[in-house]
């Protein structure tokens, strides 16, 4: 059970849509939120809020099979919305979860007709916030307009990265009065084939499914950054997509999200994993020099490049730790292996780099498991500036 007294670093509570949440982790709409039992578990593990499985006019009937892995940190699924009747959500699942002390976000989809039939009952059932989710941008805005007119609790819109212009839709939602945003929903349609059966793994009508987890994080990262950058005043933004560890959450916060959804990580590691995410986040934020989530929000914005930058990397290799005896480099040679240009040779404790071959791509730094190999960007030389000018010229030439 999450205990805030066990936090060893930064304050991880956040303010979101007028509520004070115990952590920025929002247990996203999904199989862990099929009912009160799962949502209460999430709350006890430290989730700042829990989102109900999406409530629609009818209960979902799911095909078999409808969930599978993609590598070991991502999923494909063709699971539908909530598989129990909406009355059950109003009478049991939402009130029980609220009574347990959780902040409950009622997810409502996917059409205007359904929003009209459901949102007021979700508010009456005790939900603190409503999250609207739809298949297309065109349906989301009418759903939002109706909901804003008929409920008094905050309303957030869940955006999809599969839409033609998600960032423009974010703007429209805010203009139509959305109190907050969630970016983004699962990516798809996607496909996985079981090679033993020579058949799609998902038994949806077309064999396709939706991808979640680590694989989608860089896509969702870009949306969160762009939305946060375009709306500097927006504090009620929560990211969804591939938060597998505390560092991922910090990435999103630096990009501009205040909260972070967790779905795939909770499915693969158990919902209790949220507790570890909380303690790790507090510790890591402090290590990085931040006292709170608010403190780290948008921290990376000022460091985004204003232009393409041409220069060389100035490498530093430290085979040993400060004592000069303990090995810092573990001689795994990953830096050598990933060098596509054969520029790097490690003959422990000596490393040589042929700077005529090295393109300063930076991959060797990313794969070094211990930080023995680091680099800073060297100051631009006259030659670099000339190359930068030429690179710019190329784009003009091919216009
Ligand atoms: C099996 C499964 C079922 C899901 N069902 C819903 C749903 O009913 N409504 C919804 O808005 N999102 C649903 N999602 C999407 C998640 O809420 C979340 O946005 C997405 O999984 C990305 O986050 P993650 O990488 O942390 O999993 C589902 C995801 C999974 C994996």
Mean pLDDT: 97
Determine the fraction of residues in helical runs and give it as a percent range: 25-40%
**In percent, how much strand structure appears in the residues?**
15-25%
The ligands found in this model are: flavin mononucleotide
Structural class: alpha/beta
Strand order of the largest sheet: 3-4-7-8-9-10-15-16
Number of strands: 20
- CATH top level class name of the largest domain: Alpha Beta
How far apart, in Å, are the first and last alpha carbons? 59 Å
Task: Name the shape in a single word.
Answer: globular
Please state the second-level CATH architecture of the largest domain.
Answer: Alpha-Beta Barrel
**Which homologous superfamily in CATH is the superfamily of the largest domain?**
Aldolase class I
Number of helices: 13
Calculate Rg over CA atoms: 24 Å
At the third CATH level, what is the topology name of the largest domain?
TIM Barrel
- Structural domain count: 2
Could you list the spans in which at least 5 consecutive residues all have pLDDT below 50?
A: none
Largest sheet: 8 strands, parallel, barrel
Topology:
Layout: E1 14-16, E2 19-21, E3 25-27, H1 36-44, E4 49-51, E5 67-70, E6 74-77, H2 86-99, E7 104-108, H3 112-124, E8 129-132, H4 137-150, E9 155-159, H5 166-175, E10 180-183, E11 187-190, E12 193-194, E13 199-200, E14 209-213, H6 217-230, E15 237-239, H7 246-255, E16 259-262, H8 264-269, H9 273-287, H10 293-296, E17 313-317, H11 334-337, E18 344-347, E19 350-353, H12 363-367, E20 373-377, H13 382-397
Parallel strand pairs: 3-4, 3-16, 4-7, 7-8, 8-9, 9-10, 10-15, 15-16
Antiparallel strand pairs: 1-2, 5-6, 6-14, 11-14, 12-13, 17-20, 18-19
The structure holds flavin mononucleotide.
